[in-house]
Amino acid sequence: MTIDALATLVNPTSCLPRLKAEPDAAHVHSALLHLSRLYSPQSLSKDERNILVASDAEYAASSYQDALDSAKVDGSERRYAMDWLTRLIASGLYWIDEARDHISADDLLDLAGRILGGTASLEEAGAISREFRFPLKDPILFSEEAATLIPSALSSQPIEIVLRDDPLPPSNTQSEANTQSSTGSSQDAAAAVGVQTWGASIVVSDVLVRYPALFHRGLASQSHLSDRRLRIAELGAGTGLLGMVAARMLQQTNGAADVVLTDYHQQVLKNLEHNVGQNFGSAVQQIEPPRKVSVSVEHLDWLEMHHEILQGVVDNDRPKFDLLLLADVIYAPEHALWIRSSIEALLRKPINDQDEALSPRAHIIMAVRGTGKFEGLFQTVEDAFKPRVQASALPSLSDSCTDTPMDTMPGTPALAPEFATAMNSKATAQHSHELHIRMSAFSLQQPRASMERSELTILKRRKLDKRASVGRDDEQEYLWFEIGWSPCISTCNT
C-alpha cells in the first residue's frame, strides 16, 4: 500500500464517515475505535481493546504504524477529529436503530464521550505518548559495505521504548533560557524542540539495534573490556530515544554500562527524566542494588564547554565516555563548533596499545535538508572537524562588524551576550553566510591546552536513506559522521 493510501486510511480528515450521511452503527463504532487508537487508548474497555488489536493485525507493516504516528502529531487532523466527536455527540445519533445494528446509540455516545474526555485530559497535560519497537520491520538501507562485513546482532527480544513528546513552551511565557537577557520567548520555544522526537533518532536507532558494532565494539561484545563498564552519553538527547535504545539493548545482552542522557533546556530535561523513569525506573531505584546498566539525566551546556576549550581550561575530574551519540542536534552554523568542543572535553582518549575497534567514538547523525534555512548545514560539521592550524595565521574577528543571527533551534543554549546585537532581526541569507565564514575561522584557533599529539577528526562518513513517514517532509536523507581521535598532523602545535 502506498504512503498516500495509508494516510487516507488513517487521517481523520479522510477516514471518518460524514455525519450528514447518517452512517450505520458499525461504521461509527469503527471510527470511534480508530480515534481512540490515535488519541485516547486508555479510554477503551478490555473488549474494545481486543477488537482494536484484531483490526490492527490486518495492517502489520511498520509503514502503517508510521502513518498512525504522523496522524497523532498532526494538529489539523487532531482538531478535525475533536470537532467530529463533538458534532457526533451533539447529534445524539438519532438515526441508529439498535434492533437493526445490534449496538445502541447510547453505547456509541458513551464511547465517544470517553474518547473526547480522555483526549481533553491529554491536551491539558500537553503530551503525546509514542511507542517505538526496534528493529523496524522494514530495514533501513545505507551505502556502507561494513554492514555486510559486520554480522547483524539482532536479539530475539525486540527493543521497546515508550516516550512522551511534550508540546513546545508557549510563546507568551518566560523561562530560564531568556530571563537573563532580552531574548524573546520565541527563542525559548525554538530551543525547546528537544521535547519532540525527530526522524534522525528513529532511523539511527534501528541501525544501532541491527549493527551495534558499527558504533562501538563494546555494544556488541564486552569481552575485551575486562571489568570496566562501558560509558555512553547522548548529547542533545531530547526525548532520549537513541540513548535509551542503547541502554535497553545492553540490558538484554547482559552488558554493563553507564548511560547518561544530556540536554540544556529545563523543560527538555524534565521530560527526559519522565521518559527515563517510565522505561528504566527512577534514579532512586538505581542506587540499591547497583544495576548492570544505569541510566541518568544531566544538564550540559555546549557553549560553556566551547568557551572552556578555547580558553585552555582542562577539567581533569570531568568523567569521560567511550561512546557519544548525537542525533539531529545541529540547527545553526555555530552548533557544530560547540559540539566539537564538547566531544573534545568528553570523549576518552584511546589507550596506546588498545585494539582500534575498541577506541572511543562519537557519532553525529543529521538530516540533510535541500531547502529552507537548514539547507547545507551538514557542511558545518565538515568545517568544524577540519585539522586545526596555527592561530597566528588567522584574521582577527574583532575587525568584523557582522552581527550573529539568533534564529537557532533544538535543544541548544541561549547564545552568548556578545552575540546579542542581532536579537531583534532575522538573519538574511548573506548574514548566515558571513556567520558561517566567521565560525569556520573561529574553529581553526588552537586552544592553549595540549592535545597530547592527537586531535578529533571525521573517520567515516555514511548515508542513511530517508524512511517513508518518518521525519519532516524536507528531509532528503541522513548523514552519519563517525568521529574519533587521530594522531595530530604536522600543523598542530608542538
UniProtKB/TrEMBL annotation:
Residues 164-188 are annotated as: Disordered. InterPro entries: Methyltransf_16, SAM-dependent_MTases_sf. One of its GO terms (molecular function) is protein-lysine N-methyltransferase activity. It comes from the Eukaryota. Pfam families: Methyltransf_16. Residues 171-188 have a biased composition (Polar residues). This is Uncharacterized protein.
